[in-house]
Amino acid sequence: MVLMESKELRKISVSDESTRKELGKFSRALTNMILFTSLYFLVATVPVSVYFITESYLAPDADDLTLAKMDVAWAMTYLFMFSNYVVNFFLYMMTNTAFKRAFLEICCCVVNKPPTRRGSRFVSTTQVSVVTSLTEGEKKLPTVSQSSGFDPI
């Protein structure tokens, strides 16, 4: 009910159809990202939770073989639980264009795009450029310059 009221309020407050479509795309992408990350979090943490429950019943009177099996099960469920962080990174890369662009800027020094405005977040960016000397054919030290602008959320 609250979601429907919010949707109707958005239709009233945003008069431009193209802006409304862009907000709809952004909203769906954000919803998908949150849904997939939440579902994978549940999938990744349920096995370790089940392990803790079964360990409390098996551990007090377990023999060496059972304890060894429980250690292997602990290691596997523990690693699977932490796979959530790795999977989140790839989910963000697939569903969030702002995250993908920021990641590529950091890793590949691709910061020559002019800042764009979307939303109301003010972001200061650092630009790094490598200058190649034409006469010597060798790279000089990178130069760093500060610039400010609006960046998409």
Automatic annotation (TrEMBL):
* Membrane-spanning intervals of the chain: 30-53, 73-94
Q: What is the lineage of its organism?
A: Eukaryota, Metazoa, Spiralia, Lophotrochozoa, Mollusca
Q: Which residues form a coiled coil?
A: none
| A GO term, aspect molecular function | G protein-coupled receptor activity
Q: What is this protein called?
A: G-protein coupled receptors family 1 profile domain-containing protein
One Gene Ontology cellular component annotation?
Answer: plasma membrane
Where does the protein end up? Membrane
What membrane topology does the UniProt entry give?
Answer: Multi-pass membrane protein
Q: Does the keyword Transmembrane apply?
A: yes
Per UniProt, which keywords does this protein have? Answer: G-protein coupled receptor, Membrane, Receptor, Transducer, Transmembrane, Transmembrane helix
Predominant location category: membrane
